[in-house]
Write a structure and sequence with these properties.
447 residues, alpha/beta, Rossmann fold, Arc Repressor Mutant, subunit A, 37% helix
């Protein structure tokens, strides 16, 4: 059989072998320098599969250099596989689910789907145990948001540019939820890169290629020095992927990142571009008697089928309004996240009376007060003065006003002043010319 792949005059007929490899099933070559093959309704990495096909075809006449030669021909002749999100469909065992309309289409390699959920879709399926679990672990007005999270993770792509953070003490259901989601998405559709790795490892980003989600539980609360790469990934920007000993490649990540933490990690970036990307879900409840069988009971075939059906309904509602459900619990969680990631807000919350508009402070005085607080309570990593002033300007209700040529702010009062019993006159009217405040006399202290 293998004799047909060899010529007595010049040896291996590499192109004939390459064509035979393709005849055994659709094969393409990806921008990540890997072969991909289509089997059972999904395109998957196939370097090993291609190697096995070559060995089987050449049989006893196979030699390692033959395999390398055939692979080089395949790389040159195969059409490239564009690894891109199939946002309109969710690939499951029984077909491609058009989640907007609930229809199931037959699998086809031309969908170029690279992820398949290990469940079947039945729109009438139920998940009573998982419903009961959610009622126990999250606030009532956050249940809808959890369903939207699950449905959004099932969909390819991240058009809303969101990252998810589950917070709360240990043993409160975060790990159980993540475990159920992993079973729902399947191990081949997820990566597990810790949040901090994106800032320090050049190889971390490549792990996201072709994945639905990056799920990492129990991240530590250490300070995040750089958020640039994380924002690039969430924003679906083109990024550079690198694997050890492999060729660099460029791709657009479309997976969603999900993390859990007992404490919210602080970051050097407190901009809205950072904080707006996060959906923070609090887990305030801890069961009195933990159930060691809970994960298994929530991950049965029947429960997962029901979870998939209900999550697709939630996804449909989410994408129709393009915004996650936000109740009181969501607002409180996001405010906590914003404060922790903005040292100025944390300092105001702990050391100032706010809002309070009865005193003007020279901004240098405020910065000194902030540095004293940071040295004792803030971790000893104070912001620079320019950054401090810039963040202070962003605080709602703060007004920067010139007094006798000195820059300062109205909007808060240092609690140290209150403790010493300082009484303050009300601020004078501030005249504005061409959008800029005119110098006015500062209010006097009355002792």
């Amino acid at each position: 059989m293998s004799a047909r792949f060899f010529d007595p005059g010049f040896g291996l007929k590499a192109r004939a072998v390459a064509h035979a490899v393709q005849s055994l099933g659709p094969v393409r070559f990806g921008i990540d320098d890997r072969f991909w093959a289509y089997e059972n309704g999904v395109w998957s990495p196939a370097d090993t599969l291609v190697h096995k096909r070559i060995v089987r075809l050449l049989d006893e006449r196979y030699r390692p250099h033959h395999g390398q030669t055939v692979r080089e021909v395949l790389r040159a002749e195969l059409e490239p596989l564009e690894i891109a999100p199939t946002e309109s469909y969710i690939n499951v065992y029984n077909g491609m689910v058009d989640w907007r309309h609930g229809e199931v289409m037959p699998h086809d390699p031309l969908y170029f789907s690279t992820v398949q959920l290990p469940v079947t879709y039945h729109p009438e399926a139920q998940c009573p145990q998982f419903d009961a679990f959610l009622r126990q672990v999250v606030a009532p007005d956050d249940i809808a948001r959890v369903w939207e999270l699950i449905g959004y993770l099932m969909m390819s792509g991240n058009p809303l540019q969101r990252t998810f953070l589950l917070t709360g003490g240990g043993g409160n259901g975060k790990g159980v939820l993540l475990d159920v989601i992993k079973h729902l998405l399947g191990s081949t559709a997820i990566a597990a890169v810790p949040l901090h790795e994106f800032a320090i490892s050049q190889f971390a980003t490549a792990e996201l290629f072709g994945k639905l989600a990056n799920i990492c539980g129990d991240i530590d609360a250490s300070f995040i020095e750089s958020t640039a790469r994380i924002k690039e990934i969430t924003g679906e920007d083109t990024v550079k992927g690198e694997r050890k000993f492999g060729q660099p490649f460029y791709f657009r990540p479309w997976c969603k990142m999900v993390f859990s933490a007992n404490e919210i990690p602080a970051a050097a970036d407190s901009s809205s571009g950072w904080t707006r990307r996060f959906e923070v879900i609090g887990f305030p409840n801890r069961p009195a008697h933990p159930d060691p069988t809970l994960k298994d009971r929530l991950s049965t075939t029947g429960e997962l089928r029901g979870i998939a059906a209900k999550a697709i309904e939630a996804l449909r509602a989410l994408m129709s309004r393009r915004e996650f459900s936000h109740g009181a619990a969501a607002a409180a969680a996001h405010e906590q996240f914003a404060v922790i990631n903005n040292k100025v807000l944390e300092w105001i919350a702990e050391a100032c009376d706010y809002p309070n508009h009865i005193k003007w402070y020279d901004r240098r005085e405020l910065y000194k007060a902030y540095k004293r607080w940071d040295a004792e309570y803030g971790g000893g990593r104070p912001l620079g003065s320019k950054r401090f002033y810039a963040l202070l300007r962003q605080v709602e209700g703060m007004r920067e006003v010139l007094h006798d040529g000195w820059h300062g702010f109205y909007g808060l009062m240092l609690r140290s002043d209150i403790a010493y019993g300082h009484a303050i006159r009300l601020e004078p009217e501030v005249e504005v010319e061409n959008g800029s405040p005119l110098p006015v006399e500062p209010p006097d202290l009355l002792f």
